Amino acid sequence: VINDNPLLTTRLNKNDKETKGNDPIRIVVDSTGRIPLNSNVLKTDSKTPTILATTSRIPKDKERSLLHMGIQIIKAENSMGKVDLNILMDKLYSKNIDSILLEGGGTLNFSALSANIVDKAMFFVAPKIIGGSNSLTPVEGEGISLMSDAKNLKNIRISRLDEDVLIEGYL
Fold first, then answer.
1. Euclidean distance between CA atoms 137 and 160, whole angstroms
2. 8 Å CB contact between 102 and 112
3. DSSP secondary structure string for all residues of the chain
4. More confident residue, 46 or 49
5. Which side of the chain, N or C, has fewer Cβ within a 10 Å radius?
6. Contact predicate 71/51, CB 8 Å
7. Using CA atoms, how far apart are residues 92 and 88, in angstroms rounded to an integer?
8. What whole-number distance in Å separates Cα of residue 93 and Cα of residue 81?
9. What's the rounded Cα separation, in Å, for the pair 116 and 171?
10. 109, 140 Cβ separation under 8 angstroms
11. How confident is residue 14, by pLDDT bands cut at 50, 70 and 90?
């Protein structure tokens, strides 16, 4: 959210009778409440809720402002002061949310894999070469040092979307 400032909506034309669909419930994971109050994901006019998953490290005034804006807050803290993704999944399930699409950065992706909350992975690959020692990767964090410990995908499906390639598989 801080780097991209996304809307996290479907961007469907709600007035078009041919277009059907609803915005997803937006869930932002932010252990310390760094999310700017003017973020697009908080300002959207969507009727679907936005949930901030955070910890006791969020400043009280920020928490009050978010609640006043109609943002739902879920606190799910682990012993290191970060959002505990397993606790978060339990709390989301209690709200009848039993499936999520995680569109996170490399650190959140690594945390989700480490917490074993990922059932299916989808990788979009564009036929473009970038790189460099400062390039971001889809999975960051501590990483996996041995190939024998790598997370293997099963039931892999590969498809093309225009020029891009989608690789899907189950953990």
1. 21
2. yes
3. -TTT----S----TT-TT----PPPEEEE-TT----TT-HHHH---SS-EEEEE-TTS-HHHHHHHHHTT-EEEE-B-TTSSB-HHHHHHHHHHTT---------HHHHHHHHHTT--SEEEEEE-S-----TT---SS-TT----GGGSPPPEEEEEEEETTEEEEEEE-
4. 49
5. C
6. yes
7. 6
8. 22
9. 9
10. yes
11. low
Encoded tokens for 93: 């399930």
φ, ψ of residue 156 to 5 degrees: the values are -75, 140
What gap in Å lies between CA 155 and CA 151, rounded to an integer?
A: 13
Would you state the pLDDT for residue 80?
92
Instruction: Compute φ and ψ for 75, nearest 5 degrees.
Output: -100, 125
> Which two structure tokens, joined as six digits, stand for 110?
């690594």
Of 47, 99, 89, 104, the residue nearest 70 (C-alpha): 47
Q: What's the pLDDT band for 53 if we cut at 50, 70, 90? A: very high
Residue type, position 20, single letter:
K
Q: Look at the chain and count its residues.
A: 171
